[in-house]
Amino acid sequence: MNTINYIKMQLYSLGENVGIARIAAAAFAAQADLPISVIDEIKVAVSEAVSNAVIHGYGSNCPDGRIEFEMLLRDDRLEFIITDFGKGIEDVSLARQASYSTDPERMGLGFVFMESFMDELEVESKTGHGTTVRMYKRIHSPKTH
Ligand SMILES: Nc1ncnc2c1ncn2[C@@H]1O[C@H](COP(=O)(O)OP(=O)(O)OP(=O)(O)O)[C@@H](O)[C@H]1O
Ligand SMILES: [Mg+2]
What is the reported pLDDT for 143? Predict the structure, then answer.
């Protein structure tokens, strides 16, 4: 699989950076020939993953917390990879279930959105070490300029 473009950003774990990652994802996805509605879905999925890193990985605003955000444009898909080095998830399959949240104030729908808006979702996590979320979206072909 050929990589056509790659960007890696490093973010402080701050709520403000969720919106910045979201805009960056939309700009990156615009390289593929996708309808606006699909770009909107990618924005939501990326926001959910980055906000999980901020809220759950590091327990809200924490400038010492680092989040890596990588975006790849391949021949046949876009990839978005969000990594935090925070507290990790004890049981990933439980966390991915609809309505499951460790915070009673939350809906527990972040992973459900990521799963339904993207073609594939992979979650890797180790307690005390952090979490990596990989999301893939199929594309027909990158735009040619
Ligand atoms: N990066 C992460 N680090 C640690 N725990 C996480 C991380 N991402 C998710 N989790 C755990 O997985 C649970 C489910 O995440 P999900 O995004 O589906 O729901 P939520 O964040 O609790 O609620 P919502 O996204 O609807 O506001 C979280 O409550 C949290 O316990
Ligand atoms: Mg969430």
Answer: 66
